[in-house]
Design goal:
Strand content of chain A: 5-15%
Oligomer: homodimer
Number of helices of chain A: 16
Largest sheet of chain A: 6 strands, parallel
Structural class of chain A: alpha/beta
Helix content of chain A: 40-55%
Number of strands of chain A: 13
DNA sequence: GTTTAATTGAAAACCGTTGTCAGTTCACTC
DNA sequence: GAGTGAACTGACAACGGTTTTCAATTAAAC
């Protein structure tokens, strides 16, 4: 009748030791180094702990003493909830969680709202290391992370800071392969739908200057890869319309597709820098009665599950693996001959949403 | 040239104070209570901190002293990565993350693999409270959570433990409404696809005894709701085939649908206890050339985004809101007149995958 | 020019562990 | 009966802060 475990915390390691008439060391050992004391004594300690409602050594105090928090921090600048809405982010998180799970480490989602630049949360986080995902390079939170004396891995971003590892994928090469696929199919009039290029809201056409200026390396690489491929095929990039969307959702993809097709009705292929946008584009095409791929080719990037379900032509990146590698990179610290930078391959996946441009023309002539 | 911030941790609050010739209190105040010291002095302290690479007070030490960790722990018994694969779980997490974000709390995913029953992780977690999601009642991790002297909120589970709050949804009522919808459409031959009912792998028919015995309250309620509705309409539940799947994925749904339709070809409606299973069932129907809803009605439960996209008839539960409420329940502790139990409403969403049974007969007779 | 009040800073206690290390007890072995 | 090793103790120093109490300094008031 000493009370439920949820009233207060009366018991500490010391009080338990006193109760039992043993030293604190012994109690501590009962939990942490069972080989240091006899089994019966250990059982006695544990039994007394149960009886007194002692939940075991306080994790925070233990962390302080051992200098290990047992958790990895994850920093995203997008609203935290975004992490769960975007299929690429969830894939990444899944992999990261997997790696953490295997290492017995927790995964702490650091609460940072993109608006109020309250860096405090980063300082408050009791973690052994950070993974930084989808953050622009000049982000104050990111800088706060770098100030913390713990190892850090950044994802999808060239990083020059010493002691910071990196994992990314072959964005440019993947998009280049996709571009080659498109030109091989005979497409010359190609439109591009891309994600946010800057921190400020901007929805609409993005000219080459803006494309170059972007603070999002992933977008730069993907657009750049496409540009390489098209240029190889003799297409003048300056004439390629690029429509940008700030939000990353199917709805945004649909509206971007509408916008682009309205201003450039002669486009035979829509290359999107993400599957989510592409799925939106497909949605728009379906609603507008535009046959895919007969009249319009649509491609994505990422290889999310839903894209696979709808047969989208896309570039698959190993999102989950990327998360896993990020975790491993972080947790295998100390491994002297560990790579500091990992770039994972991407793979062109030809689905049923891309077809020959000639077919499109046939379609037109048949009209 | 004292070194980058990533070499070691030379600077502590004490060393900084010594360097400056002030007391530790002052340095601490500079960070935590700016009103307790003059602005110039504070600036001097902060400047010295920058110079010496002092990243601010150590979060763990601070937590120890203040008895607040600044984070909420999330316990799932499914492999951690499952949390990111299942759309319902991600929705819940999104809401929970939102609540945490607003309260400036971190969200710690506690690493528990379902297999090795290593409760240690629960004890290691430096958190101010726990949210327990999708865990069977007799789970050792769950019990470990209850031992911790911190507030706890469980989700979707009747809980008798004092001091533990609960959030859930009207599973039974929702499914009952769906059942009424089905019987109103004239369906009498109904098959059920349900999720895991026990901790052991089991794929195949689940008789009423097994349905009752399940350690997953959600499944019990949903199946029970359907049973109520069908019984109301005079359908003998004993004759209703229920097929269970251990895995929760579209593939599992597809195979379950195949199994059920093979053994009960006269079924006119397939009621699934989750959208994910229903999406799988739809997939199977499409592959097998079974017209939906003309020849077969398919329904789900949850109201996930993809279900909406495909027009699935389902019961929508406010998953995100549920997560948010869980967070609020936990974080608003101390609010004396706060509810201890929250049950959120569900809503029947009639889509394009359910149709009258008469239509089905017409379809048959037209053959 | 005191007295009084407001500011500011220092000292010390405390948070709950872990780890180390010398030392004691005790049962066994040879 | 000395030697050996296992089991356990006790003291103490971290770990890096926060917070309360109180003294000292300064500014304001009379």
């Amino acid at each position: 009748m000493t009370g439920s475990p949820h009233v207060r915390r009366p018991a500490t390691l010391a009080s338990l030791a006193a109760e039992l008439g043993v030293s604190r060391t012994t109690v501590s050992n009962a939990y942490n180094r069972p080989d240091q004391l006899s089994a019966p004594l250990r059982e006695k300690v544990l039994e007394a702990a149960r009886r007194l409602g002692y939940p075991g050594p306080d994790p925070v105090a233990r962390s302080l003493r051992t200098r290990r928090a047992g958790a990895v921090g994850l920093l995203l600048t997008e609203a935290l909830s975004y992490a769960f809405r975007d299929p690429v982010a969830t894939g990444f998180l899944e992999g990261l969680a997997l790696a953490c799970e295997q290492a017995g480490q927790g995964l702490l989602l650091v609460p940072v709202s993109p608006e109020h630049a309250d860096v405090a949360a980063v300082h408050q986080a009791g973690v052994d290391g950070f993974v930084v995902y989808s953050v622009s390079e000049d982000d104050p939170h990111f800088r706060a992370v770098l100030e913390r004396p713990v190892p850090t891995v950044v994802c999808d971003q060239p990083v020059g800071v010493e002691g910071v590892d990196r994992v990314g994928v072959a964005d440019r090469e993947g998009m280049r392969a996709l571009g080659a696929h498109l030109t091989a199919l005979g497409h010359r009039k190609i439109g591009v739908l891309c994600m946010r290029l800057g921190p400020q809201r901007h929805d609409g056409p993005a000219d080459p200057a803006r494309q170059e200026r972007t603070s999002y390396p992933v977008q730069r690489e993907r657009i750049g890869g496409l540009r390489d491929a098209l240029t190889d095929a003799g297409v003048d990039w300056a004439g390629v319309p690029v429509v940008e969307r700030f939000e990353h959702s199917p709805e945004a993809g649909a509206s971007a597709a509408r916008e682009l097709l309205a201003s450039h009705p002669d486009v035979t292929a829509l290359a999107c820098t993400s599957d989510v946008l592409a799925i939106g584009a497909l949605q728009h095409a379906a609603e507008a009665g535009i046959a895919v791929p007969e009249r319009l080719t649509v491609t994505g990037f990422d290889g999310v599950p839903e894209a696979e379900r709808v047969g989208l032509t896309t570039v698959r990146q190993p999102v989950r693996r990327k998360g896993q590698v990020a975790g491993e990179l972080l947790l295998q610290r100390g491994d002297r001959n560990k790579p500091k930078q990992v770039v994972l391959p991407t793979e062109l996946v030809v689905g049923s949403t891309s077809g020959p441009a000639t077919q499109t023309e046939k379609f037109f002539s048949g009209w």
